[in-house]
Amino acid sequence: MAETTLSGPHHQILENDYASEWMGIEVLSLSDGHATIRMTLRQEMLNGFGMAHGGMIFAFGDTAFALACNPAVPAPGEENNITVASGVDINFLKSAYRGQVVTAVADRRSSAGRSGLYDIQIFAADPGAEPDPEKPGELIAEFRGRSRTIPKK
Fold first, then answer.
1. Which of 40, 81, 107, 151 is 20 to 30 A (C-alpha) from 72?
2. Structural domain total, the chain
3. How far apart, in whole angstroms, are the C-alpha atoms of residue 54 and residue 123?
4. For range 28-47, the mean pLDDT
5. Is position 5 within any domain?
6. How far apart (Å, rounded) are the C-alpha atoms in residues 116 and 68?
7. 2 assigned to some structural domain
8. Residue 3 counted as domain residue
9. 136: CATH
């Protein structure tokens, strides 16, 4: 079973995010419009070819997107709003494999009113590789997300 504790900087949306918990996501950094996360690819995250399932890479990128879109601590008067995906595209560039450490770096590119545009780069590094914040591995996917802020139900 996966590690069930999320570590790193705290973000309120992770408190009940059981998918991210199951994936073993670690939050490395958070700031306004930015998030960096990582996880290790496990056997149950692989497809029938023995490489990372595209849905796992997508879900991982989507978590980074959500963290970048939503402030860790909402501004006064914004507590009843959430920012969600209105659309996303992903381009898979290379395969990733069991044991590799994947890192997603999400950055806001534009924000206007209730809409935003975010780019998320996903990298893979071999286990035991020296962590390098400037180059967290080989680029394996590019994820672009369009966001919309809506009232929380």
1. 40
2. 1
3. 14
4. 96
5. no
6. 11
7. no
8. no
9. 3.10.129.10
Long-range Cβ pairs for the range 39-43 (8 Å, 24+):
39/101, 39/102, 40/99, 40/100, 40/101, 40/102, 40/127, 41/96, 41/97, 41/98, 41/99, 41/100, 41/101, 41/102, 41/124, 42/2, 42/98, 43/98
Q: In the predicted model, is pLDDT for residue 1 greater than 80?
A: no
pLDDT tens-digit series, residues 90-104: 999 999 999 999 999
Domain that holds residue 130: 12-151
In a domain, 1, yes or no: no
User: Look-up: residue for tokens 């790193």?
Assistant: 8
Strand stretches in the chain, DSSP E: 26-31, 34-40, 81-92, 101-112, 115-125, 138-151
